[in-house]
Amino acid sequence: MTAILQKQPCDLRTYIAQGEYAIADAEDAVITTVLGSCVATCLWDPVARIGGMNHFLLPEGPPSRSDVSSFGANAMELLINALIRSGALRGRLRAKVFGGAEMYKGLTNVGNQNGRFVLSYLEREGMPCDGQSLGGVQARRVEFFPAQGKARQKLVEDTHIVEKRPVPEISSDLELF
């Protein structure tokens, strides 16, 4: 997972893609991403005034790939550890979560699984979730202001659900002409 740390106000707007995270403490810093079925977790420490956002693709991966950062548990731990190394206290972290849309109707429910995973993870770790926007059928653009702990989203209007088309029935009959 790519880590982006903003400690100085040089580039105050950071975009993260799938499998990435960023943390910042600059007052004007903004971390952004665009989500479909993926989930982004925004964590912040209101006392240290530092926060970060991750963007993960799947709740879990195969056991042989436990190091991959686009899986939920790994993405969460990487973000939490980076925040702690930068002065946040785990017991003060608060969350806001976004994403988990159903982008491919009838094909997969990974968005729903991602949403359930992140809420379960936060509950298990004792981290309060102050806000959430999970599910639905549209992509989201999320902006997080880490020093303030504020987040906003905008639904992306030009996305459409891709319908799974029924597979034509294959016949075992053979016709010769």
UniProtKB/TrEMBL annotation:
Write out the similarity annotation: Belongs to the CheD family.
The free-text function statement in the UniProt record for this protein reads: Probably deamidates glutamine residues to glutamate on methyl-accepting chemotaxis receptors (MCPs), playing an important role in chemotaxis.
Which PANTHER family has this protein been placed in?
CHEMORECEPTOR GLUTAMINE DEAMIDASE CHED-RELATED
UniProt entry keywords in alphabetical sequence: Chemotaxis, Hydrolase
UniProt GO MF annotations? protein-glutamine glutaminase activity
Gene Ontology biological process: chemotaxis
Protein name (database record): Probable chemoreceptor glutamine deamidase CheD
Enzyme Commission number(s): 3.5.1.44
Known InterPro entries for this protein? CheD-like_sf, Chemorcpt_Glu_NH3ase_CheD, Cytotoxic_necrot_fac-like_cat
The species this protein belongs to is Celeribacter halophilus
Where does the source fall among the domains of life? Answer: Bacteria
Annotated Pfam families: CheD
Gene designation per UniProt? cheD
Instruction: Tell me what reaction this enzyme catalyses.
Output: L-glutaminyl-[protein] + H2O = L-glutamyl-[protein] + NH4(+)
